[in-house]
Fold this sequence. Notes:
Elements: H1 7-19, H2 27-30, H3 40-56, H4 60-73, H5 78-90, H6 96-109, H7 114-126, H8 130-143, H9 148-160, H10 164-177, H11 182-212, E1 218-221, E2 227-231, E3 243-246
Parallel strand pairs: 1-3
Antiparallel strand pairs: 1-2
Amino acid sequence: MSRMLSLPLHVWALARRVHTQNPLAAERYLQRVLDVDLTDPERVELFRMQADQCLYRENYRHARKYLKRAMQLLPNDALLVIRLAQAWENDPYGSDRQAARYFRRATRLAPLDALAWASLGRACLRIGKDAIAKRATRHALKLAPDRADVLTVAVEMLRESGRLKSALKYVRNAWFSKPHDPAIKALMHRIQFEIARSQQSAHDQRSSNRVSATLPFVRIIDAEGVRRTVRVDEPETRYPVSLRIQFSG
């Protein structure tokens, strides 16, 4: 039978078309083409589509299985390696160390991929390799200083390391380059909000420590009507508490 007239291959073409719109809707078509004699590139695409369905369901373990099958046929595909690293990174039971390993491999396969470098920086920070994380993040922002997806990952790395002001500097530079980019503008507002909240929290903590170290003043009036001040509040305390104790004769 001609390959052009094969019904399973027609279903395979339909699955590919449906997958671009809704990966989950393509599942029932993919189940009917598993036994079709596909070429290696088509099998890579099939495994990639099955991995996408698993990722939509947050079934990361099965997604990694399909991605590894695809990598056996196409071992030097940087996009497959990045997807595998993300499947390790996003899994609550995954491994940041494995994610860093595959992101590192992706940067070797695609040294100009800024997103791979930014993701490598974030993964390295999470496993305690701060020096590599800083270098990878700086390199990513050098390759793509105004890409919203790269900035999002880089900002997350800087935020987790406590460098919000550095994150704001990079995002502000990107906003000057693309002032009408809604993603960059939203990212800048988010960082500004987190900086303001951090400053307010630090101010509240200092105020709390200052007030808690001072006891409210107490005036004791004995039976003869003599007043004694036991402790006086600091002048900056706004609402001092006064306690009057009357002893009976």
